[in-house]
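Pinned message: reference record for U6 snRNA phosphodiesterase 1
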Amino acid sequence: MNDSSGPTAKRRKLQPLVAQNQRKEDAAAHQGRVRTVPHVDGIFPSQQCQAAHPDVRATDGPSLRLSLSKTLYLRAHETDKVRDAVRSIAAKISSFEISFDKLIRLTNEDKTRSFLARRVAAGAENLTAILAELHVVLRKLRLPLFYDPPIFHASFAWRVLLNAEQVGNAFSDTELDEANAEHGSALRKDIHSVTELCFKCRNDVQSFNVR
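Predicted structure (tokens):
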């Protein structure tokens, strides 16, 4: 029973939860890049990556990392589930080779960066099978899926875009045609062996060997 004779309680206005936990971003500290989703404490950006290490035919080159997801913003309790899924997939697959067929230009969804990348040719079917298994877990957690259709690639250069009008000028069609004419033959001979799957969360990268 309420006592109407007592003092009336004052309602306090709650501060927005996200605003309390967001941090101010300094673009200068990230080579001009700006977060499209502000950092929130307790939510960690993660990314599933496919690491393709040079095999004996390309021992002098650096290892490659091919993304198998968009950047995922995971809450702390979701991180273990996604990491365990990556580990489980790695344990079921065998090593396979990938090669590339051409240089392509890609732009992120927010049109803040354009990339130059090598497009995967041989090995794309293997990557598609891995992606299908990963999507099962992402759907259960209601997380965003990879692009459809997927374009598997290894990026090696990028430019910051100040506005959407710069998308076509970041790496022009003429530059791409000239680069493919000059480097296409060598690119198609560049073969790598996939040996592990990786799970990246913040600055921590965990690697899981394939069979």
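Pinned by admin. Summary line: Residues 14-22, 49-61 have pLDDT under 50 and may be disordered.
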